[in-house]
Each structure stands twice: as structure tokens, then as C-alpha cells.
Sequence to fold (439 residues):
Amino acid sequence: MAAAGAGRLAAAALLFLPVVAVLFLIAPLVAVSIGDADVGFRATLIRTAESRNLSLAAERSRRRLSMYTSGAGTQAPVNKNRGGGDYIMQFSIGEPPLPVSAEADTGSDLVWVKCSPCNGCAPPPSPLYDPAQSSSSGELPCSSRLCQALGVFRQCTDDSALCRYQYVYGLSGDHYTQGVLGTETFTFGDAYVANNVGFGCSDTISGSQFGATDGLVGLGRGNLSLVSQLGAGRFTYCLAADPNVDSTILFGSLAALDTSAGDVSSTALVTNPVPARDTHYYVNLQGISVGGSRLPIEDGTFAINSDGKGGGGVFFDSGTTYTFLADAAYQVVRQAVTSEIQSAGYAVVGGGNYKLDTCFAANPQAVAQMPPLVLHFDGADMSLNGGNYLTAFPNEGLVCMAIMSSSDVSIIGNIMQANFRLLHDLDSMTLSFQATDQC
Fold:
């Protein structure tokens, strides 16, 4: 574990840009179909150039937080911005297979692609999917289980009618995608075939162009997500701090952490009593330490609210760049980090265009000099180096805390997850992690 920790400290100096936008390239394995007991496939994670705009990433993170705290819209991700921290997943849909590139998101469930014709869609990099041109396309009625799973986004007046949806992405309601829920054959790589995957065929996009992608793939805990529909049971990924290093995401039988590669810690996934919020990967965060000292954060600060609305709580989200902490905890953490930075001789300055409220005049090397920040989960401690909670802006001579304040829910974002292998195990209801310097 000591070797892995040293490697992570060295890699932290490379973390000038967050691990927030990658390309999922599915490696061919064996041909199987949805519902098979031994589901297993892998993907390579490649960071895309568009991930490097940290200003957009910060704004996207704030929008995402507002979606999570709005109540009614907690099943959907926030409005996506090109360059603002998206994942891209490449696969094929239909028969004959049509290659598509879609954003992948562990914080939502619905799988959808832009369908031809599409109103409001940005010019696509390739032809849009047309169900009329696929021999494997199917339709789902309003009475279907997957249509029912849409919840507040379901638009049905007759159970025998086609299942229409309007998936909303913001508090104002003017960012949404809408279309018809159907089924299709999804092909990953050259050989992994999943038949009858439920997905949204979107014919309208409003307010969000979703960059140059063809749609979105939900990887949350709900019935609509790709993970649930494939019956994968678990998946693991690792986000490399070094932008030049590719990493992988593994599904089903291939998803495991090797104890010979370092210590593995596990904490229980927590169930949110409000179904609309339970798609997220909640955990029980009990406290935080900085520089070896436990911070005076009041017990219950990170608990899911008992008011019946399901607010509060803490969850891991690969689609959010920065980390958010409930304000009572954020203020304590901010004070502790500021004290450490000032003790090292750096002055507090404004965040400029990045709109971050805790920044310092420092060079990137200062990130690797900072002491660990430890998240104390139920049964597991996650020790984070400077690169997991600070981010450097070399051109401006700034180092800023990659943590923001939240009035409600707390979110463990991408930067804080970098250089950890994370295993989301829905079968055992645990989230496990392992520090590494080799994603």
C-alpha cells in the first residue's frame, strides 16, 4: 500500500486537469445476449481534449448539483456542456449495427440516442439512428415495466399507447430530451451483443446540444440503466490522474479488485427511501480528517434527511467533476485546507473566472506537498492526496480547492476519485476502492 501511495503522490503533480471526459472503447469478447448469467465485458477509458475546460466543468458541476437538490428531477443528469466533463461511450445500435457515441453517466438511468429526424439536435458527426432502418427495433407500450420506471418523465394517457417521455435536465424545465421508449440490439466491440435493451429514441432536444454526441447511457442503480438491464450486477472503473494514461471499465464477471495490487476497502451502499433518488450510489460518510486531525463536523451532517424527501446524504458520481460537501462540513474543511496551504507559505487569492472561492497563489508542485485528506466511511477510510482535493491552473498561477459548498446533498466527484479503482457491487450492495498508481 505504501508503494501505491507514493506513486499516487507522484502522479498528483500531473493532475492539472480533472479526469472528467473519456472515451469508452469496448473491447471485443464473446458474443452473449442480455439476460445471460455470465455477463462480462470491458471498455477502455480515454480522456478527450474537450475535458480540459475547467471553467465549463465547474459550471456543469453546479448545474448538476441544482438538479440533484431540486426534488422532482433527481432521476436525470443536468444539462450537458461540450467540454464540461462528459464521458463518451462508443457502441453500435440496431441491425445492421450503426456506430454511435453517447455520454455515459453513473448518476442517471435512462439510455437514449438521437433519432432521425431530430428537432433541435446539433449537426451529428455521423448519421442519426433511424428505427425504420433496423430489423431489430421494437416499441414499448405505456404499460411496460421500463416505461413505468420513467416515473415523472413518463408521458402516457393510455397504457396501450407507445411510451413517450420527456426527460428534464434543469430547474427551469427548458432543458430536456423527449421521444419514444423502445428496444434494440446493442453491440459492444465486435462480439458482445445485448438484445432487447430498453432505450429512448429521442426526436427532440431542447436547451442542450449534448456536444457532438449521439445520446446518453445511464449507469445508475435504477431499472432503466444499462447495468441493470444487462444484469451485470457490478462494474469497476479507474480514472487515471495522468492524462496520457488509458484505463478501463469492467462489467459483470470481469469486475473485481485484485488484493495483490494493494489494500481493498469496502463500505456499504445506502438505500435512499425516496425511489426517485435511489438511483445514486449512496454511502455513509461519518467524518473527515485533514493532515491527521479529525475535523469537528457534527454527527449527522452527511445523513440522508428523515423528512421523507430523501435529501442530504453522500454519493459517488462519475459525471460530476468537483466534489460537493454539505455547507456545515464544507466550511470546516475549507478552513482546515486553507490553514495547511497558508502554513506552507501560500497566499489566499480570488478564483477569477473559475468562480471557486478557495484559491491560492501557488505553482502546481504545491498540490503534491499537501497532507492527506481522509474520508471516513462506515468501515472504510479513503485517504486522498493533494491531487484529489486540489486542482492547479498553471497559466494563472493558481491552486484551488476542488470542493464546493452544497445546501443539501454531498457528492464525491471525479477529481476526488482519480487514481482509485472503484467497484460498484449491486449484488453485495457495497462500494469498494483501492488506491493505485496504475489505472
